[in-house]
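Q: Got a minute? One more chain.
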Amino acid sequence: MPQIIESPSRIEPCLLETLPVTIADRIASLTAAAERLGHRLHPQTTKNLADLVRVMNCYYSNLIEGHNTMPRDIERALANDLDGEETRRNLQVEARAHIHVQRMIDRRYAEGALPEPASVDFLHELHRAFYDEAPEAMLLIEGTGCRFRMEPGAFRTASEHDVAVGRHIPPSSSQVEAYMRHFEQRYRLEPMGKGGRIVAMAAAHHRLNYIHPFPDGNGRVSRLMSHAMGLSAGIGASGLWSVSRGLARGLESRQEYKQMMDHADMPRQGDLDGRGNLSQKALISFIDWFLQVCLDQVTFMDNLFEFDHLAGRLKRYVERQELKPQSFHILERVLLQGEMPRGEAERITGLKERGARMVLASLVEQGILGSDTPKGAVSLRFPSDAVDLLFPRLFAEG
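A: Always. Here it is, folded:
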C-alpha cells in the first residue's frame, strides 16, 4: 500500500470555517420543510406512519448494500416469520436488526436520552446492536490474507483488518481508535447551533466512512448515525422521512452516492483549497449534495402525506378492497382525529350497531386499522399490501 498520513488530522477539514451562501440557503429550506412535515398529520397517525418509514429506511439501506429485501419480507421478519431458505432468512434477520436499532434511536430521542450520535460509545453500541442476532455467516469477513470473525461493536484493531475501499485506503487498523476519538471531538453536537448540527450531519457521514472503523457494516452504521444526528439537529420531522431513500436514489442517478463519497475523498488541491489534508471544495460539494438529497426526501414525503391526498387514496383503497362505503367514513375520521373509540362506529357510519361492528371488524381484519388492545381505540395502520396504493413510489425500485 502507498505511504499515507497516519495522524487523525488526515480527516480534516471536518467542518467548514465559513458557511457558503448556497449551504446556508439549503439549511433554511430543509429546516422549514422538516418543520412543516412534522406537523402534517395527527400525532397518533404520525407515530404509526413512522413505523412504515422505518421499513422504508431499512429497505433502501439494504438496497445500497445490494440486498433487495422486499417490504413484505421485512414485515414478516418483524413478526418473526422467517423464510426457510438460508439466504433470504439472513436478509430478513439483517432487516429486522436495522429496524430494531432505528426504533431504539427514536425511542431514546423521544425520551430525551439520545447520546451524542458521533460518540465512540454510541457508534460501538449501534454496530453491536445491529449484529446482535446476526448468523455466524454474516460475521465472517475476508481480511488481508486471511478470514476472520468480526466482533460486533469492535473497531478494526489488527493488521488483517486493514482494507482498501475502491481507490480509498482507510487508516490502518492500529490507528482507528485515535481517529475515532478525533472524530468524536470534532462532531460533538452539544455546543453547536442548529445550522452547525445540520452541516455536521452531512460531513460526519462521509468522514466516518472515510475512516471505515469497523471491519464491515460501516455504511449501515453511518446511515443510522445520520438518522440520529438529524433528530438531534431538529429536522427529524417525527420520523417521517429517511435519508437512506435519498442516498439510494440520488437526485438524478442511483450512482451519485458512490460518486459523491469518492469525490469527497479527494486530497487538498493547492493553497486555495483549505488548510486540511482533504479538499475543502470537495467537502463543500458533498455537504451541498447531501443537504439537497435530504430536502428532496422531506419534500417528497410532505407531498405523499398531504392530508387531502391521503384521504382520497384511503377512499380508493375502500373501493379496491370492495369494502362497504361506510368504511371510508371511519377511515377519514381516524385520519382526522388520530384514533377512534370502537363505540363510535355506529354514529360515524350511520349504520345500526351490528352493521357498524361488521364494517369496523372488516377494516381491522384488513390491517388498515389496529389497536394496542382488543377493545382499545383504533388508529390507522399501514400494511405492506396497502402501501402501493396509499403511498405510490415509496418503494419504487421494488
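A: The first strand starts at residue 140 and ends at 142.
Q: Perfect, thanks.
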